[in-house]
Design goal:
This protein has helices spanning about 5-35, 40-60, 65-75, 80-140, 140-145. The chain is mainly α. Helix 1 (about 5-35) packs antiparallel against helix 2 and helix 1 packs parallel to helix 4. The termini are far apart.
């Protein structure tokens, strides 16, 4: 990919920008589904996100060529072309920053839900232990032991 030209560079940036926008949209849907407790639909959204991340991963081999193109050709590009590319790069950075924020909010919410669920389960377990101890303490000796031998 050493022969990358401006058109290819712009197309790759636009493609990456589109993927990042779609990830941001899906992350917002993810947050709404988490807030609403719709974990079945959440699995579908996570699957879509995984597909996009897979596509981005598949393009990773192009990353060095993109960086090299920008470093070597940036100053020699016409100002209109350079401005367009810089605008795309800035938009990608902005979308990625919002995406990280969305993911952080979702992660924190899920962690709080996990902790609350753990605490509820611990309380239920403690309650059943108290119930068992109370039941065993109140039962007469004869009902605590069943003589199956006769």
């Amino acid at each position: 990919m050493s022969g990358l030209n401006l058109l290819e560079f712009e197309r790759l940036l636009e493609d990456r920008h589109g993927h990042c926008l779609r990830l941001l949209e899906l992350s917002r849907q993810q947050r709404d589904l988490i807030d609403g407790g719709n974990f079945t639909a959440l699995l579908g959204v996570l699957g879509q996100k995984q597909q996009i991340l897979g596509r981005l991963e598949g393009q990773k081999h192009r990353q060095p060529a993109l960086v090299e193109f920008w470093r070597s050709r940036r100053e020699s590009l016409a100002s209109r072309d350079r401005d367009r590319c810089e605008r795309l790069l800035a938009e990608i950075d902005g979308v990625l920053a919002r995406l990280v924020g969305e993911e952080q909010v979702s992660s924190e919410f899920l962690a709080r839900q996990r902790d609350a669920t753990r605490q509820e389960l611990e309380q239920l377990h403690l309650g059943s232990e108290v119930h068992r101890a109370y039941r065993d303490g109140m039962a007469p000796t004869t009902t605590r032991h069943l003589d199956v031998g006769g």
